[in-house]
Amino acid sequence: MADSSARGSILVPIANPETADRLVSTAADLATDTERALELLTVVEVPSQVPLSEGERLVEDEREVLEYAADIVSDRPVEVTKRIRFARSVSSGICSAAADQSVETILVGWRGNRRRRDIVLGSHIDEVLREAPCDVLVKRMDDDEPIREILLPVAGGPNTELAADVAGSLARVHEAAIHVVVVHSPGGTERSREEKEAALASVIGGLTGVPVITQEIIESESVADALVDRSEAADLVVLGATSTDVFRRSVIGSLPERVGRRATSSVIMVKANRTIRSRLRRLVSRLPFG
Fold first, then answer.
1. How far apart are CA 230 and CA 182, in angstroms?
2. Which of 21, 108, 251, 268 has a C-alpha 20 to 30 A away from that of 120?
C-alpha cells in the first residue's frame, strides 16, 4: 500500500443524490486501498451576469447533498472533505477545483446514454476529460452488484497502467478476481500481437495482492463485440481510453465508448494525465515503503 503523503486526493463531483452512493462508494474503495483522501464537490453554476462572489445566494440543497454523500462513507477509514464551488459551468468548476487542490484523480458518474450527436459522454464529462489537470475515471451509473470478477482488457496503450491500478485496487478491496484479456484481430500485424501480449505480461506482473488473476487471448473480427460478450461473465469492466487527441470528437475513444454503452456489467473508463508530475506520482505509489 502506498504512502499517503505521496498521493493526491480523489475528487468526486456530486450532483444527484440518487446516484451519490454508488459513486462515492467506488471512490472510497479506491481511497481505502491507496490511502488517499476523498474530496466531495458540488458545483453551483453562476450566470455570467452575476459575480461569482454572490454565488452563495444561489445555494439550495447542495449542502444537504454533500452531507448525505459524506455519511455514505462515514464508516470508512478515509479522510473526507466537502466543498461547494461557484463557477460559470460545472466542468470549469470541477477542473479548477482539481487544479487548486492536491487532486490526483477525478471520478465522475455517467448515465450511459447519448443526448446529442455532438456530445460523446455528456457535455460536462467531455469537457472534464479534455481539460482536467489529473487522471479522470468515468463510471457508468448502474445498480451496483457485488464485485467478484473484474474484466481488464489490455492493448498496451497509454492508459493501460492506470486501468490496471484501478482494477487492482478494487480487486483487493472486494477480494475479487481479475481476468486480463487481449483481443487480436485477424488482420493485425505480428508486431501488434507481440506488443499486446507483452503488455498483458507486464500488467499481470504488476498486479499484487489480488486473490486470483487469470488471462485470456481472444481472436475476433470485432474487439468491441468480443469485450461486450466477455463482460457477461464479469461484474465490472475497467478499460483505458484509446483517444489521446483532444481535438477529436471522441474524447475517450470509439472502442471504450462502444464497450461502455453496451457492456452487460458495470464499467469504469479511465484516462490518465500524462504530465511528468502525474507519472512520477504513479511511480512513487508503486514503491515499497517501510
1. 11
2. 21
CA-nearest of 242, 249, 160, 258 to 206 is: 160
pLDDT above 60 (res 122): no
Q: Which of 13, 22, 239 is nearest to 144 (CA)?
A: 22
Q: Which CATH number fits the domain that encloses residue 49?
A: 3.40.50.620
Q: How many CB atoms lie within 10 A of CB 184?
A: 16
DSSP state of 37: -
Q: What's this model's pTM, rounded to 2 decimal places? A: 0.88
Distance between the two ends of the chain, CA-based, in angstroms? 10
- d(CA 196, CA 193) in angstroms, rounded, equals 5
CA angle 72/78/82 to nearest 5° reads: 60
Pair (1, 127) in one structural domain: yes
DSSP string computed for 82-133: EEEEEESSHHHHHHHHHHHTTEEEEEEEE-S--SSTT-SS-HHHHHHHHH-S
Residue 68 CB: number of other CB atoms within 10 A?
16
Sign of CA dihedral 162, 163, 168, 171: positive
The count of structural domains within the chain is: 2
pLDDT at 26 over 50: yes
249 and 154 assigned to the same domain: yes
Q: Can you give the residue range of the structural domain that contains 48? A: 1-134+273-290
Predicted confidence (pLDDT) per residue in 124-133, tens digit: 888 999 899 9
55 C-beta neighbours (distance < 10 Å), count: 18
